[in-house]
Design brief:
The chain contains 5 helices and 11 strands. By secondary structure, the protein is of the alpha+beta class. Strand 9 and strand 10 form a beta hairpin. Helix 1 crosses helix 3 and helix 2 crosses helix 3.
Length: 204
């Protein structure tokens, strides 16, 4: 199979979407039907669809119907401690043992049982805009200061599923740690932000 073939098909589908053959939110024909149209193997069409999903032209889970993506609302993150202004869904609250990284971030022994929650922040259209996974020890405490470090991370299976992206797609990762009046960490969080939906501007 020529790699150029699935890329040519992806480019043609992109052209057809731009020409109005399919509108944002509209499902594309199945991979099998499209493979027949383009006279290629189903695997070639799967690669073309995957490429279009990675580049934000299509959205939807692997092995399910895909739709033409709406242009993402691009937001700018300037305050990592701000409350999310739209709806959120808490998806996981199971306590977790502290990994070596989390133990260092919170100043606790490795394998200390931490409270934990993962929250999916939704945009006004109901699309996942950000995942926030937070860990803390004991009861939640007030904080007076926040530190933030910006990096990138490949998405794991759960993150990719929630955000409608491919596993191992690269996203922004903001490590946010909240500190009490003594400068002791009381809570740490990973903010996972899709690169097609965010720009980051953090104060120095």
């Amino acid at each position: 199979m020529s790699e150029a073939r699935y890329r040519r098909i992806a480019a043609d589908i992109r052209r057809r979407i731009a020409a109005g053959d399919w509108q944002p939110g509209q499902a594309l024909p199945s991979r099998a039907l499209m493979a027949a149209q383009y006279q290629v193997h189903a695997q070639t069409m799967r690669l073309a669809y995957d490429l279009l999903r990675r580049t934000g032209v299509l959205e939807g889970e692997e092995r399910k119907r895909v739709v033409v993506a709406h242009p993402p609302a691009v937001r700018t993150l300037t305050d990592v401690d701000a409350e999310w202004p739209f709806s959120c869904e808490t998806t996981d609250t199971r306590p977790r043992p502290a990994t070596a990284e989390l133990a260092e971030r919170l100043g606790v022994p490795v394998r200390t049982v931490l409270q934990h929650e993962t929250v999916e922040c939704l945009d006004p259209g109901g699309r996942s805009a950000m995942l926030v996974t937070t860990w803390w020890r004991g009861g939640r405490q007030p904080h007076v200061a926040v530190t933030a470090e910006l990096g990138t991370v490949p998405l794991d299976v759960d993150q990719a599923h929630a955000l409608g992206l491919l596993v191992d797609a690269v996203a922004f990762r903001v490590v946010r740690t909240r500190l009490n009046a003594h400068g002791t960490p009381v809570e740490t969080a990973d903010l996972i932000l899709p690169m097609d939906r965010w720009t980051i501007r953090l104060a120095g």
